[in-house]
Amino acid sequence: MPTMADSVFKSSRMVELIKALRNEVISAQKRITGIKPPNPELEVTYKSYIEKVQGLRGRNLFYPYVGSGLGNGPFVELQDGSIKMDLINGIGIHLFGHSHPDIIEASIRGALQDVVMQGNLEPNREYGELLELLVGAAGRKSRLRKGWIGTCGTIVNENALKIARQKNSPARKILAMKDNFAGRSTMMAEITDNAEYRVGLPNYNEVLYLPFYDAKDSIGSIDRAVQTLKKYIADNPKNIACFIFELLQGEGGFNFAPPEFFKPLFEICKMSNIAVWADEIQTFSRTGELFAFETLGLGEYIDLVTLAKTAQCGAVLYTDEYNPKPGLIAGTFTASTVSLSAGVQTLKTLINGMEGEPVFGPKGRIQKIHKQFTSMLAGLQNGSCKGLINGFGGLGLMVAMTPYDGSKEKVMKLLQALFKNGMVAFSCGHNPYKIRFLLPLILEEKHIEVAKEILEKSLVENAGA
């Protein structure tokens, strides 16, 4: 027998209303077809609003960006009437770009429910649906069998750390990779290998850093990492709880390593009762498979995995052995009902494919977009922008480009030029600094041509800056 909620939300009247709202947005977004300059009539009020927001924040916005709430795939309208091409997507949140009809419909359904925020004490149906999708997908090629949802990547990373420390108590120290990024909480800032993110914070001396892979010295870099790990274990007997790593470093510069780099490190950790923890906050859904550990064939080693961004909330997944004791991880908020509903729809689309086309695998949509976008960059590097692009790389929808000499000053100036000319991107790495792209899954060849024009114009204009 259906619930009263089913009789309301699945009624023909409700279906018609939701469809009407969806169609209204689709009708409006059809007018968003490409780059557009600001509306002069809106510029004064827009500038005033930006200044107000910056004053309330106590610091400037990176870009003078305030969205209007409407977009169309890779294009987004700002409150000043301008339209930009968004190739960073909220640093990886909007995998399907802006105003995707299916995500809008799922969000409407979530917004109609009885609570704005769901919690671990009183979850609604979407909570279990999302967990089932995540655990089911992760468990296909790993020993991950359980999970816990949280509001964001930092929260689930904190939960993963607590799980690892509880299981391997009294061990407390943490192995991490150089140039990693783990989040903005006090502990995650401690793990993150960037001193700029912890100015004025105390140092707890709990993190041990391993050198990351160097493609220019493959065998040597593997040996250095292994020897460093062995020394840490010898110097800290039974006092290392976990090894956190990104299989492709996001903030660190889109650096990635082959399986041959990670396997000996994981095997040593296994022998030493050190939890193997994959931080997939940014790589989740972007590297060619749903999880990067699948892309690299490393699932058998993974004890914990954390994810967020694409899922519209965060989650930590773990093996039966690492199932925490009651009370260790909780929290009033799990996520908003809209986020959970949109997350369920996102996962279903990723798993089932888009318009009959698979998302994952060697012939999937992700790899097709990757080849098209990197081919475009190669064309610029060898053609009109020769000498202005000093390399590019990445996996799947994660692509980074080194412009000019890779100096911070030139990269920051180029980012502002890109924004002025109609593109939103971001930076990553240091020495060299890079332009970071998190490509939306709805990108088409015609969009990549627009991106090419903006990149070419901006690179040439700022060559002497």
Lay out the secondary structure:
Elements: H1 4-9, H2 12-29, H3 40-57, E1 67-72, E2 75-78, E3 83-86, H4 89-92, H5 101-111, E4 117-118, H6 125-138, E5 144-150, H7 153-167, E6 173-177, H8 186-191, E7 207-210, H9 218-235, E8 240-245, H10 259-271, E9 275-280, H11 292-295, E10 304-307, E11 314-319, E12 335-336, H12 337-352, H13 365-382, E13 389-395, E14 398-403, H14 408-421, E15 423-424, E16 426-428, E17 434-438, H15 445-461
Helix pairs in contact: 2-5, 5-12, 6-12, 9-10, 13-15, 14-15
Distance between the termini: 69 Å
CATH class of the largest domain: Alpha Beta
Quaternary structure annotation: single chain
Classification by helices and strands? alpha/beta
Percent range for β-strand residues: 15-25%
Uncertain residue ranges: none
Keywords for this entry:
465 residues; alpha/beta; Aspartate Aminotransferase, domain 2; Aspartate Aminotransferase, domain 1; 2 domains; 7-stranded mixed sheet; 4-stranded mixed sheet; 17 strands; globular
Describe this structure in words.
- With about 475 residues, the protein is an alpha/beta fold.
- The protein has 2 domains: about 110-350, 3-Layer(aba) Sandwich (Aspartate Aminotransferase, domain 2), CATH 3.40.640.10; about 360-465, Aspartate Aminotransferase, domain 1 (Alpha-Beta Complex).
- The chain is about 40% helix and about 15% strand.
- The protein has 15 helices and 17 strands.
- The strands form 4 sheets. The chain has a 7-stranded mixed β-sheet with strand order 5-11-10-9-8-6-7, with helices on both faces. Strands 1-2-3-15 form a 4-stranded mixed β-sheet.
- Strand 2 and strand 3 form a beta hairpin.
- Helix 9 packs parallel to helix 10 and helix 14 packs across helix 15.
